Amino acid sequence: MNPTRRHLIAGAGASLIAPALPGRAEAQAFPFRPNQRYPDPAVQILDPSFARYRIYSSTLEQVATGMRWAEGPVYFPEGGYLLCSDVPNNRIMKYDERDGSFTVFRAPANFANGNTRDRQGRLITCEHSVTRRVTRTEGDGAITVLADGFEGKRLNAPNDVVVRSDGSIWFTDPLFGINGEWEGDRAKPEQGTTHVFRIAPDGTLAAVISDIVNPNGLAFSPDESKLYVVEWKGTPNRSIWSYPVRPDGSVGTRTKLVDATDQGALDGFRVDRDGNLWCGWGSNGALREEPETIDGRAVYPLKGRPEDLDGVKVFNPEGKAIGFIRLPERCANLAFGGPKRNRLYMASSHSLYALFVEAHGAV
């Protein structure tokens, strides 16, 4: 097979629970029942300003399940479908709004993580492990490599990606995909640190941010004057930093916009037209200092209750928490989709959830 191409597998049976790859156990599917009450109590108003974004007669839906770790959703309005990565299963999945099918789009996918569209509607993918590169899928299915190394050394593990209106592509390069065997192959990092990179329209690659430990999700403000970046290993909490973007594509001095003080685990996020940040949320996995006796054993429980943290937390442009969408699974990343870009898709552990809101994606 030509190493610059991948098979696009689209179909092979429309099923809500996607088939596992050969030789791998089927991921467990969790039963889900939508709430029968309006307004849906899963949509929580933390500040009165969030009420305008809640649709009174809209309820949370589970539109697909059967994944092991759902990530990187991206919506394609021309085809009415959404793609998302199932990272440990090494595949990209496709949810079709028209018939509700959920099928394999690409497998293997080089442990794809973050995905987005460029201004021409082409798929941009962060291949998180093994190949450790950022690629573009052309209209004929050919794969173009946009970046796979910096200063003569391989990238770490490209994670999340966004495209600016000038055509530049910005992506984070933490270590997650090479730290172990769950999301790819363990490997020794070659870069001296973890960067946020910018691919200029002419293809030039530059490290624009190097002062964040394991940068994760990223997005621009609606006017693109600010770049927001999640620091996965922030001290003492995970954080979102705001960087002013200069005309030449460089960034200025950062300021902290969001601090996850409740044991929350920031991951991916998206920005709406009003500048609000809709953030994937869940437990950061921190343990309590002292054990509890559970079933006769000394057990170190998590700080906080994961069942109270799993979902999407919404912050206004000033960094104030204004809303929360409770989910039965931890949300890693999300995207606005639907014909009007007002359907919030949430890639959450094993499943893909959706909720219509009175907000629209900025891009």
From TrEMBL:
Keywords: Hydrolase, Metal-binding, Zinc. The active site is at residue 267. One of its GO terms (molecular function) is metal ion binding. Pfam families: SGL (PF08450). Its cofactor is Zn(2+). Substrate binds at residues 159, 183. Binds 1 divalent metal cation per subunit. A divalent metal cation binds at residues 71, 216, 267. The keyword Zinc applies. Residues 69-350 form the SMP-30/Gluconolactonase/LRE-like region domain. InterPro entries: 6-blade_b-propeller_TolB-like, SGL, SMP-30, SMP-30/CGR1_Lactonase, TAT_signal. The keyword Hydrolase applies. Its EC number is 3.1.1.17. This is Gluconolactonase. The lineage of its organism: Bacteria, Pseudomonadati, Pseudomonadota, Alphaproteobacteria, Hyphomicrobiales. The gene is gnl_1.
